[in-house]
Amino acid sequence: MIVQFADRVPIGRNDVSVPLPKRFLHDRNCGIPGHVQQPRLSGQLNGKREVYILYFQINPNTVSRAIRIRILNGNMLNFSRGIERGFDDEIAIDVLKNANRQLYICFDCNPIYGSWVLQWGNVDPTQVTDWNFCPVNFDHFALIRSSKPLDENTMELPRFIISPQYGYNPIAEDLRGSVGQPYGRTIRQLKTLQVNFVRVSIDLIDDYYSKVSIHKPHFVVPYPENVEHCPPLWATLTRPPIFTKRGENGWYWNCSLFWREAY
pTM score, two decimals? Predict the structure, then answer.
């Protein structure tokens, strides 16, 4: 289980060279302007094979009806539903069908090249991809490093026991009229996650909680090896951890952690 601490930074450049795995790019309308040539994201490797998760949501106002994303110097490992594989290093997304959906792509990079490049392009009616012109609007855009931590911005928590719990925390209220008829409007449902740890050291969980408390949003990646079925969560802890001493010699504890999606 990987947790990653991140700041919110708007997209505003053609070739983003900041250390993206440490950042969360967020805006209500993160535009990739149509006049920008070769829209891409790139970064340097640390001399080892790194694994990343690209997390994004396409705005329905995007002009392009279909886009393609490809990775250079690496391989697509798995991705969420709604994405189709084109070639080994390329995937295709139908914008109309997948607007307002959270999408995920997991990929790795070959350290021999010393860098990675993510590039996206517009698909015209003849299905020819133009990698130099692709006006795309993102509601969310983030890049999470899911390989083992190498810096202070990422931590690896112990593997939790089987049966994590996913759920929803509704923002809307159950409003009723004078004779019982429901009314109101459907608004965003915040996802929730609960996991249980058995026989863990208190020090690591305590260090993690001291960094985030219950107010700091961060990425939670329950299963870094599979984002298709267990996607990452941008969330906050809903309450402090409570440790229960195990009935055995030595200082080992059981505890649970609860997260709620942050928007």
Answer: 0.77
